[in-house]
Amino acid sequence: xxLRTAIPPRVLTVAGSDSGGGAGIQADLKTMLALGVHGMSVxxxxxxxxxxxxxxxxxxxxxxxxxxxxxxxxxIGVQAVKTGMLASAALVETVAELLAGTDAPVVVxxxxxxxxxxxxxxAEALDSVRSALLPVATVATxxxxxxxQLTGIRVTDESGMRRAAGQILGFGPRWVVIKGGHLPGxxxxxxxxxxxxxxxxxxRHDNRHTHGTGxxxxxxIASGLALGMDVPTAVQGAKTYVTGAIxxxxxxxxxxxxxxxxxxxxxxx
Length: 269
Prior knowledge:
The chain is an alpha/beta fold. The chain is built from eight helices and nine strands.
């Protein structure tokens, strides 16, 4: 049996830990493995978290986050970076500064609240997300709750998604994906750079076990970019991957279970 010698593209996630394994850095690394890239991590916060919610969260010191980032990027290098839970204004600004000096596409998932409604970003950090983090993003991936946090717009239909996209693009990312999964009907997302529009539609699966969808989508987009795809192709591929993961999501504990990051390799039936 011959050994594989090709080095896979490298993707770095800068995010918090989910002790239940369904979201956060754990979801990011599983997604990256499933999609054929080498995942690396910078831990920003530790959460005590399960299927019922977040019982506690502790952010890491700025120096620890900076040291992890420099350790990986300066030695190993990256082809894409994904950000998730950054918790505080100080961490947002530190990570934004690091990203600005890194020559790689950046996918920003502006994590504000958990699937269960638990706050994962300090209110005072929102200004830093708008002014420092979003301007360095190649793609930003807010859900509708995060759109409201960042812009004040409450989206109730597809025209509202278009209006929200314009507001988010005004903060500086090159592309934005407005995730419309909380709207009734089909699971629809809008990808736009302000000129081209791509409406990504998928059937809605009757499965409540959807923990980790946002982390998974953003990590899948970053993986596609690292593999050399353009933004629309990477986002479409990520949408396909996360739709399959939602369909295969499974129960864990007494609450909302995770999506299945390994669904592509599960035997049929």
